[in-house]
Amino acid sequence: MSAVKPVDTCVVGSGASGSVVAATLAAAGQSVVILESGRPTRPSHIPTIRDDWEQHLRDFFPPSNGADRVHYDADCDPRFRVSRFKGVGGSTMHYEGFYPRMHPGDLKRRSQLGMAADWPLDYDELAPYYDRVESRLGVSGALDNPFEPPRPPYPNPPIAMSCAVQRAKAGCDRLGLHAAHAPVAILSRADGARGPCNFCGGCWFGCMHGAISNAQQTYLADAASHGAELRIASSAVRILLARDGRRVTGVEYLDADGALHNQDARNVVLCGNAIETPRLLLMSTRHDHPDGLANSSGLVGRYFSAHVQAKVTAVFDDRVDGYKGPNINGQVQDFWDHDDARSFAGGYVIALRNAELGPYYLYRQRLARPTLFGAELLETLTDTFGHTANISAYGEHFATENDRVDLHPEIKDTLGLPVPRIRIRHGDNEAAMHEHMGGILTSIMEAAGGRQIRFESDRSILGTHLMGTCRMGTDPDQSVVDADGRTHDIGNLLIADGSLFPTSTPSNPTLTIQAMALRIAERLIARDRG
Ligand SMILES: Cc1cc2nc3c(=O)[nH]c(=O)nc-3n(C[C@H](O)[C@H](O)[C@H](O)COP(=O)(O)OP(=O)(O)OC[C@H]3O[C@@H](n4cnc5c(N)ncnc54)[C@H](O)[C@@H]3O)c2cc1C
Ligand code: SF4
After folding, report:
1. What predicted TM-score, i.e. pTM, was given to this entire model?
2. Diameter of the chain by CA atoms?
């Protein structure tokens, strides 16, 4: 094992949260190393630069060496499957960039409903961090959503609603729902070498115009410009503890050749996401920490949360070109805030989408059957491609202690490490919410004039928004970290990723993850100085 030059802070993970933490600490003059198990995305990895891009979607993903496996417990709901991106920039390299802020009540479910937990901070404390993250990412949006808390204008004007989104909006208008522009981390105006969105579509697989504000081209670029070192293909395998067991001294990691190194650091900030962060803590056992680090509460890995999801597709007689434009560029927040009159607790958001991709995707997803070929296939494709649109909803999951990530006792990955074992189930509240979503989405499509309306319910537990597992709180018996991201047990071991969410909140989490990461990094700097 080799020891590497010590630094002020070692950040594990270069995604949404890790990039913000590294950029903020490095700009304040700290020496920072980011350990990232994946590799960078190059323009040549973006499949949409090719004519036959639909055949090459898999090329976008970093090659898997089996070290990214998860195991689903026999008791895990089969409607849940993880989707994440393990490369430089983390899952922001594959995201849709829908960037709503939370509402004040989302953070206070225990006080409001007697359910779940309160966040240990208020909306007003988060708001200034929302402003700054939105500004750095150049979030585009409009002040046309009547449900959003008061806020300053968006840094960039809204991205115009596409044809498909305007069609869905017309359905919302007829029902009296308030369809508005979606706030998105996508440029509507050029920024240096990065171009504005040109509506080409396929944003999940990278943006050849640089319009999507992923971590690689925003905060990670800032971190590098302030001297932070990004060490790729470097997988953290254990957090190192001082002899007295009261502070951490660094991180042990494996490089691409399988060699083991120690990165010594004054502080360690975990940003590996809500599956890998608890996994690393649980792997870091020692005789005086037999249950892993920061786990005196026994809650590391518990309260794993994943949103309720519903999706409805429809076919329209005239063209709506649902494959053009950013994946999401309209939203409806009428059902966001909790309402006692509904049959479920919590709330959800509706996303108006352009996510139909190309004709091959349509064929594989919706049309493929053994008897469909020749003239009938051509006619079906002509009738549906460019005529299909979809809308979806994401909503709150009230996780229980039994929703969890732990280590599989036997199965190991290719690095010889225990694979994360996942168990998540949605309960009656989530089922009632899902049914409500299906009814509303279906009525929107009917009011918009769609036919062949289909409510897809096979993936009703969303695998892309991963939260909980190291939840934040004031009580060390009921939470893993405090409001500054510091683990209750070990003051110089911090967590800044989606794992610290005490509740899932109703909507897409990444703006909140980054706002929290910025706050955590600045509180760490203040403490270090003070
Ligand atoms: C298809 C898709 C669409 C999405 N769309 C949206 C959206 O529209 N809006 C929204 O708000 N959110 C969206 N998300 C979710 C969003 O991407 C995540 O919420 C966010 O990236 C999570 O941030 P994070 O910092 O917790 O983890 P990540 O961004 O996933 O970063 C974790 C990083 O840590 C690295 N890592 C993990 N373990 C180790 C280790 N042991 N050693 C070294 N490195 C390690 C990983 O390789 C990864 O790069 C989407 C996600 C997906 C997959
Ligand atoms: S639609 Fe816009 S954000 Fe999406 S890939 Fe094209 S230019 Fe980029």
Report:
1. 0.97
2. 75
